[in-house]
Amino acid sequence: MKHLLSAFAIAISVVMGGHLLAQESFNLTSPAPMSGYDSLKLSQLPPLQFPKDHSLRSIPAIVDNSLLPYFRPIFCQDGYECGQAASIGYVFTYEINCLRNLPANIPENQYATYFAYDFVNSGSEYTGVSYYETYEILKQAGCPSVSDYGGMSFGGYSRWMSGYDLYYNSMHNRVSDVYSVKVNTIEGIQTLKNWIYDHGNGSSAGGLGCFYSEVNVDPFVFPDGVPEAGKHVITRWGN
């Protein structure tokens, strides 16, 4: 992923139903201020809510959903499609395979990032596209598998997929719900934890989601003798 600005598949929701929003694409080297329209649409994204007793239940201290078969192998993003690498490459791939109980280690069950990216990047590989726009495209048109598309980013930043049968196949892979989780409160953090643990509904598998942040520090490595020794953690984010 790009070091300057990356989207990470961590922990909101991309379940099925609800409102999505579109946001103007922006150049990552010189991001424009969010417009009033986009700010309003963002504020209208419905919050994910669970019953109040969820805040009282006991959940594990650590959950690693990347160990589940629905989480695809790690890949390197291509160009400035960090939002699509996270929202499609990881989160959507994981969630739809979780619903269908399919493994994510084959191209037929992985989803192409450039299909949605090329809709709104103005034909430029140096234009970032918000994952909110991505989910609106996945709501309206769906998303082709990597197998149908020819690869994650086959054809580059200005290619259009040809063939009605491929678009028809894509229509079977759609998003209908996107929710927000505000993590500036204890309640919000608890909602996030419950989503990661079991989708907040007792499922056998937890959920993933997306957030944006600037990455301007090197990861910290946990020392020997502590839990998660040898693993990396980012301790500070940009704005």
Considering the chains and any ligands shown, give keywords for the structure:
7 helices, mainly alpha, two-stranded antiparallel sheet, disordered N terminus, two-stranded antiparallel ribbon, 239 residues
Short description:
This protein has 239 residues and is mostly helical.
Order of helices and strands: EHHHHHHHEEE
State which percent range the strand residues make up. 5-15%
- As laid out across the biggest beta sheet, the strand order is 1-2
- How does the overall form come out from the CA principal axes? globular
- Number of extended strands: 4
- Low-pLDDT ranges: 1-29
Amino- and carboxy-terminal Cα gap: 17 Å
Main sheet summary: 2 strands, antiparallel
Round the Cα radius of gyration to an integer and report it. Answer: 18 Å
What's the pLDDT, averaged over the residues? 84
Structural class: mainly alpha
| Number of helices, counting only DSSP H or I runs of 4 residues or more | 7
What's the helical proportion of residues?
25-40%
Protein architecture, described:
The protein has 239 residues and is mainly alpha-helical. The protein has seven helices and four strands; from the N terminus they run E-H-H-H-H-H-H-H-E-E-E. The strands form two sheets. A two-stranded antiparallel sheet has the order 1-2. The chain has a two-stranded antiparallel sheet with strand order 3-4. Helix 3 crosses helix 4. The longest helix has 19 residues, at 82-100. The radius of gyration is 18 Å and the shape is globular.
